[in-house]
Amino acid sequence: MSPYRLNMAFNSALILLSFALITIAPNAQAKTLESQATNPMLLELYTSQGCSSCPPAERWFTKLKQSPDLWRKLIPINFHVDYWDYLGWEDPFAQRQFSHRQRIYKHLGHSRTVATPGFMTNGEQWNGWFYRRPIPQSNNKAIGKLSADLSEHDARIAFQPEQRAEKKSYTVNLAILGFGLKHKIKAGENRRKTLQHDFVVLDYAKAELNSKGKAKLDLPDVEAFNAKEQAIVIWLSEGRDPSPLLAMGDWL
């Protein structure tokens, strides 16, 4: 083969190799999550861009990014509710199902009020933030082992209960969180303020585990939010009770 043809063949091979690398690059994000022996504390914040009392709670939530216990002992998750939208500003992160989740907690007696900012720790109302108290430590042992194999588009989840555990109907919940989300509020109680949000639930999915303790969930499409930093949180609940029984999370 002439040097010219050899060079052309080499360049063509490089182009094909580069294209292949670009094609498979997203799969490099695949990872596996596994729960720990002790269940971490899932700290839920219920908030809204239309609530004038919420920005201080959101600023405190942002500081939790620096916690040495993050994802290992503490999993913060920020639900934006829609019941303040009528005040003149529609929260772009709010979903009706998040408001419904907070109302179910009250209906089941896990909380006394439906308000913002509102906090839940492993499914129980917590008012410690208002009195500058430390976040309580979870004293819940894991009820089994939860794992998830993540790909670019879905999560394959498996739960192996303790040997002596009674067989129950579990629901697996999956949330994609966004960080560093800044919004200038033009109306409502927070008008003219620029708010930053972290640990925000951008979208959410859930499914019942099958008889083998497995489920497959499509990862929510959250590209529209343009969150450069994201995390994933997966937890188990039982029946209609949204309380987390076993949780895990990590950066994406």
From TrEMBL:
<dbReference type="Pfam" id="PF06764">
    <property type="entry name" value="DUF1223"/>
</dbReference>
<feature type="signal peptide">
    <location>
        <begin position="1"/>
        <end position="30"/>
    </location>
</feature>
<protein>
    <recommendedName>
        <fullName>DUF1223 domain-containing protein</fullName>
    </recommendedName>
</protein>
<dbReference type="InterPro" id="IPR010634">
    <property type="entry name" value="DUF1223"/>
</dbReference>
<keyword id="KW-0732">Signal</keyword>
<dbReference type="InterPro" id="IPR036249">
    <property type="entry name" value="Thioredoxin-like_sf"/>
</dbReference>
